[in-house]
Input
Amino acid sequence: MVKIAQKIVWLLVAVLFFETWCVEGLVRPLVVPGGSMAMTLLGVHRKVVCQDCGFQFKRGVETQEPVARAVCPNCGYVNNDISGTADVSGDHVLMDKSVFHFRQPRVWEVIAFRDPARSNRVMVKRVVGLPGEVISIKHGDVYVNGKIRRKPLRLQRAMAVLVHDADHSTGHRGLHDTRWVTDRWAADRPDSQWGFANGKFAHPETVADGTSKWLTYCHGRPSGPIAEGHRAAFVEEPVTDLCGYNQTRPRRVEDVHAVGDLMLAMRVVKLFGQGSLSIRAHDGRGEFLISFTVEPPDNTSSTDLPTGQSPVSIEARRDGRPLENCEQPTVMLPYGFDLEVSLFDRCLLVAIDGQVVLEHAYSDEGEAKSTSRPLALGCDGLGLIVEDVRIYRDIYYTDSHNIGPPMAVRGAEDSRSVQLGHDEYYVLGDNSPISSDSRNWSVDPGVPAKLLVGKPLAVHLPVRVVKVAGCQFKVPDIGRIRYIR
Output
């Protein structure tokens, strides 16, 4: 009995130590009140499942405006009734209070700090500028000392905003025009052999003739409400910085920006035959063509490529010309692989199974011309099956907006630039259109190091509301637990 009592006492001491030191001393819980960091961190919102395409999305409900309908950001369906949907609380975050005692915040890192204007309020933003740097925002991107600040692939993934998920396609447009394989993807001709079923695109093996058969992504929206029994016309328009989370915060047309920084991500289930797979990507200033040419060994049948034994040469061109100072690699493809092609931050990235195999930074010279058809998938001779086809966009940072005064000017040559002090950090929210941050504070735009509180580590203890027999219960929502990048 004595040993059991001792163990109980030591357990209570350990719990007390953990509560007072680890939880209260080193790690602090924090509730995200608003949506300025969506979709990385969410404020109060409602989960919506589109009644037309089945896509699930989050819609912020932080304003007092009555919430009755939601527009699906994936297919544009406008009649999603959410009047009876329960509100979901903002993300609960665990924050490490000690990390910045040992090192400085890093670029693109999410940090928590005291509001420079209200010291009793803790804010969460992302660091984009370090002490001593000159920060400016142009064409939606961050520039440091006159040069664009680029993100590595892991941060592109973490910060990317989903534009369209082909797994949730309605197929309505293909009922009247055979060129439309799904509601957003169209073949280049009516007799195309491109097909779509169960979330997979496929094209059969053909004879290579030097001409790719293209499947083009067409962005747009329905021209009006979709009534029961018929469909509204589809209006093509460029990808913009509109966010489905911000539907309670309408924006003026002149404040909406076309976004050319896009990513195409997919899972290549199978390649067979001999020929090439191509991806065409347009960022508004130039068109890139990335070709993957498969040439099986002479002693291998061309009807089915053996796993890991077929070299694939990768060639990239811009506006028909080979890229300067860019190595055109040859890689060995596995039987199935993830493929990502992005044009974020004026840089072409090609990644296979998460490994960058081609990288080319380029200038932003020339006038941007937006397009509603920025991406395409093509094949010449090669047969293929792909799934999990998704389009993402980069965050588009506006230089200022109507939340507060314009970006402060302090000793920089560029009238829209900020010179940071020796201990200051420039911070921005991921949900740029509604974020109050360094762009528009009435006080000094830089966050002094003395105001840093800690680093948000993970979303923890999330809950969701479940209705049973007319009563509401809060239960753990395991799916929302995640590490913050």
